[in-house]
Amino acid sequence: MENKQSPETAMTRRSLLINAGKCAIGAAGVTALASTMPGMVSKAQALGGPTEKWPWPYVKLDPDKTAELAYNEWYRVFCGAAVISSVFSQLREKVGEPYKSFPVDSFVFLEGGMAGWGTVCGSNAGANIVSNLIVGPRIAGPECEHGHTIGSDMMDWYSNNALPTFTPKEPKQKTAIIQTTSESPLCHISVGKWMKKSGFALASPERKDRCARVAASVAYKLVMDLNAWKDGKFTPKSTWTPGKTVGITGQQNCTECHGTNVPTPPSAKK
Fold first, then answer.
1. How does 153-180 read in b/e, with b if 16+ C-beta sit within 10 Å?
2. CB count in 10 Å sphere of residue 257
3. Which of 23-27, 70-74, 181-185, 256-260 is predicted least confidently?
């Protein structure tokens, strides 16, 4: 008996074979295969996504507007995603792709130092993501080195300046938000020191507004640095290179986490 397939079945089998081929030969193999068949499939299609090309288009932005956006976005997606959104939401309108396709909200996991674990402050992580996408990562070539440098400078600036530096036009909390210097890029230390000095607990509206303002402060500086880079005037300020200095990735301020300086939070009832 003759076995006839419907067009839909044939297409399904064909798709399965193509996908199986991708898994078998790997992305590099599919890319090479695609290059031998011009007009049939692009490299981006073969890999199932956009082609990585550095740097991403950038136009100068207003730091004040960016900071206001980050402040308000914090109350929706928290620190890391707020910083990313404050920049990319504007570039979606001014540039279009690839920013329109970037899944900003997926970076909500940066909240609380990544899923609440108190590691690198999400604002710092968000700033590093933005600078590396716009300027390009180190692996993209020497012309992209500032993508890494802007992020490193941000970590240094965050650690050694009294934050928050930004005051929103319409703050959600009217209580005065004090400034503290974390001496660390870590969420745990930054928030912990502020809580200890201010007396407000983690769940308090004041602590939340403080972190929203910190994210806005980071977004402001990030755009200032990106604008300077766009003008060819960005000059690195941080000289800290842990790998070269001490032979291992790390910070120069170990006692902020180890020893007697670990901050003790105020009572949760306060």
1. bbbbbbbeeebbbbebeeeebeeebebb
2. 16
3. 23-27
- Residue 184 CA to residue 257 CA, distance in Å, equals 9
Given a cut of 60, whether residue 18 has pLDDT beyond it is: no
pTM, two decimal places: 0.77
The predicted-structure confidence for 141-177, as pLDDT tens digits, reads as follows: 776 667 678 998 999 999 999 999 999 999 999 999 9
Confirm if 83 and 70 have CB atoms less than 8 A apart.
yes
| Average pLDDT of every residue of the chain | 81
Q: What's the confidence (pLDDT) of residue 267? A: 67
Return the sign of the alpha-carbon dihedral for residues 214, 125, 238, 63: negative
Residue 65: Cβ within 10 Å count: 14
Chain-centre distance for alpha carbon 214: 14
Q: What is the pLDDT of residue 259?
A: 72
Residue with tokens 């089998």: 13
Burial 125-144 (b: 16+ CB within 10 A, else e): bbbbbbbbbbbbbeebeeeb
| Maximal CA-CA distance, the chain | 84
8 Å CB contact between 136 and 55: yes
Question: Which two three-digit tokens encode residue 251?
Answer: 């910070």
C-beta of residue 225 within 8 angstroms of C-beta of residue 154: yes
Answer whether 29's CB lies under 8 Å from 36's CB.
no
